[in-house]
Amino acid sequence: LGLGGFFATEGKEGASAAENNPSRVPQGKPGERSSVPYSAGQFFFEYLVVVSLKKMSDGHYEPKITYQFPKRENLLKGQKEEEERLLQAIPLFCFPDGNNWVPVTEFTSETFSFVLTNVDGSRKIGYCRRLLPSGRGVRLPEVFCIISCLGCFGLFSKILDEVEKRRQISMAVIYPFMQGLRESPFPAPGKTVTIKSFIPESGTELIELTRPVDAHLEHVEFQALLQQLSPHLILHIFASAVLERRLIFLAEELSILSQCIHAVAALLYPFTWAHTYIPVVPECLLDTVCCPTPFMVGIQMRHLERVLDQPMEEALIVDLCEGKILRAVGDEEEILPIKLQNEMLTSLNRHNNNNNVHTSEQVNTLVSEAFVQFFVRMVGHYASHIKWSKNGSGAFQERAFCKAITSKTNRKFVKKFVKTNMFSLFIEEAEKSRIPQEGKR
Predict the structure, then answer these.
(1) Are 286 and 356 contained in the same domain?
(2) Which of 7, 11, 136, 319 has the most Cβ atoms closer than 10 angstroms to its Cβ?
(3) Nearest to 429 by CA among 5, 7, 17
(4) What is the Cα gyration radius of the chain?
């Protein structure tokens, strides 16, 4: 497939911005930036592509890019190769379900996303809207996919609403809207950008796109996870993720898969999942589940039997439709210290009582706070165990750090956690980022 290093792993450069600002962690306050490193003022997106299903000689349909905006020219050789790899990978992720499509008269449009991680660890997100073009008679769905380096799902869903509205009129009306968007700077957290857009017969419209105040949570929807799984199961999943195990999520709907997996990865904040991460696995890549290394992947329920037939290492398999665990290692209940586990359960149950008092942003903040507090209690003392040399470089004192934990159960957990890739990456950043005013050697 020539897809090179895409969707391989979450590299260090794609890590949480919190790693670049570890001083925030002991206070338990989520950072001000998203888990994708970027600054306000960047382009909203790199490409808008339309992926359509084309009939092949054997009668199957294959996804192909039929429209691309903007067309890129004057690329250097290396950039051209990367772009070709990117454009080759996109159709697979827009139609991960395989090639068994038939033309239909009705289709409920769906929104989902995927992540492509390049060999250097940089990350691109594909925001997708799969819809049926307007018309009569049977036709095939197509996908509008916006490729961006920016992680802000609510904002891009709104952009896709505008794209879908224009698609019902004509493809030609989409172009000026996307051009206007491309010329607008990406707003800072809490700020709004206004796009002017002309629609035939409606006149000029002003579209306001506002970025959430807490940019750390703008790429996630914890409500989706709480709707599919009980707090008890969420803690089992968190315990597996925190020890960097293999996690497989199953659902038929692409939107549920991508939302829930992004939510699970976000529970690890201020740490970052540093391994294979594919929110929606295309059918042709199902053997990813045979990897001996950690992974977090989403697979459509229709492929369950094929997945279970694979020669897999131990993995946690979660059925998001039924809200249950299909396969487990067996020790998930014992990974997290019981006292903290109970506190987190109480916290999650409080936000999961379905009384609709909380907005989705409030739920995000409340859930994130419960998990951040867990890390603060467990490893929040890390900064006082970095020994600074006169030349300003730091060295983490792991033994002293673990020894400083008085609770035996907490220490048992931390001794495992310090061996994870996510903790190592976090500490590497902390060793580099001494804040001068702390000045004690």
Answers:
(1) yes
(2) 7
(3) 17
(4) 23
Which uninterrupted H or E stretch holds 114? strand 110-117
At which residue do the structure tokens 């068994």 appear? 100
Note whether 155 and 260 are same-domain residues: no
Distances (CA, A) of 248 to 162, 263, 264: 33, 14, 12
Q: Is 95 left (phi over 0), alpha (psi -120 to 50) or beta?
A: beta
Would you give the end-to-end CA distance of the chain in angstroms? 53
Cα–Cα distance between 371 and 127 in angstroms, integer?
A: 27
417 with 298, same domain? yes
Q: What is the mean pLDDT of residues 330-345?
A: 91
Most confidently modeled of 39-53, 109-123, 155-169? 155-169
Does one domain contain both 329 and 426? Answer: yes
Task: Kindly give the pairing relationship between strand 276-278 and strand 295-300.
Answer: parallel
* Weakest mean pLDDT among 299-303, 307-311, 339-343, 357-361: 357-361
Q: How far apart are CA 92 and CA 283, in angstroms?
A: 8
* pLDDT of 428 higher than 60: yes
What's the rounded Cα separation, in Å, for the pair 4 and 287? 16
Whether this model's pTM surpasses 0.70: yes
Q: Say whether both 301 and 389 belong to one domain.
A: yes
Higher-pLDDT residue of 36 and 173 is 173
Single-letter code of the amino acid located at 87? L
* Domain-terminating residue out of 211, 231, 250: 211
Instruction: Kindly report the number of other CB atoms within 10 A of residue 267's CB atom.
Output: 23
Amino acid present at 354: N
Give the residue carrying structure tokens 């929104």: 111
- The most distant pair of C-alpha atoms in the chain lies apart, rounded to whole Å, by 75
Pairing of strands 203-210, 192-199: antiparallel
